[in-house]
Amino acid sequence: MQSSKNLEKAFSEAVEVAKSLPKPEIGDDTVIAYSGGGKPPALNLYIALIQAGARATIAPASLAATSILPYRETGTVIAFTNSGRDARAINLLMAASSLGVKAYIVSPPLHPAVEDLVASLEAETITVESEATLLAMMIATLHWRPQLMGAREQRIREEIEALPEAWEWVQERYSDVLNAMQDSIPARAYYSSLLEAAARYHTLASGRPSYELQDSLLIEARGERPLLYVSSVEAHNYKDILLGLAMKGVRPLKVEVNTDPVTANIYASIIAGIISGRLE
User: Fold this and answer.
1) For residue 266, what are the CA distances in angstroms to 23, 63, 86, 109, 139?
2) 157/164 Cα distance (integer angstroms)
3) CA 134: distance to chain centroid?
4) DSSP state of 102
5) Is the pTM of this model over 0.70?
6) Contact 58, 42 (CB under 8 A)
7) pLDDT tens per residue, the chain (280 residues)?
């Protein structure tokens, strides 16, 4: 477990690294793929695209290579992985190359043999060198997103510009939940649909499983205190489930993120990192 000061330093570094990464070519009908722990940033980019009204497909790298690219025309392929020698991501790049589809791999530094192979496929590499690689990737997707319409775009820009202060804001805003978990991390976490990226990040950082919130009634028992990641814009969709948990005697610790859906997973992932004492 890292100290709070070291975690904050790693977060600050991830914010700076994310700003420096080159932007992939993102058009209509982009295929976003993931393997090797790359699902959190893939989900974050997917949400940013569909919130902007763009068409996009998200899938595991293996599924994209075998069941999406061969059967229809697509836009650019962007593959996220947290491994420098991910066979499934490489197989996807090979499939894209054979079909003449432009592809990117977003990853930590690749193994030299893998780097040579990727170059031979004419795929582009976006290398993320950070102590918190996945978090840097997630933040980078905010810089890569298409513009939104109207005042919402300005609000998101202001949030992104204020990210260096986000660590302190999260600790103050969610002090009650963080204090409740000083001694132990809940056995399980659940998430509303928009916060799946943060819940997957929670699992990778803590080693504890996460599930869709709608599954909680099937799993939780009286007296347990699971952790809930819920976005405010979705909260009304889960009132029946929260009531059902209360009737079962389950007292969840709720992290309700009341920000724009495009940025919500970043704040929830900071919470996950603080809870876990580790940034991925």
Assistant:
1) 19, 27, 25, 23, 7
2) 13
3) 8
4) -
5) yes
6) yes
7) 567 889 999 999 999 999 999 999 998 899 999 999 999 999 999 999 999 999 999 999 999 999 999 999 999 999 999 999 999 999 999 999 999 999 999 999 999 999 999 999 999 999 999 999 999 999 999 999 998 888 899 999 999 999 999 999 999 999 999 999 887 899 999 999 999 999 999 999 999 999 999 999 888 888 888 999 999 999 999 999 999 999 999 999 999 999 999 999 999 999 999 999 999 9
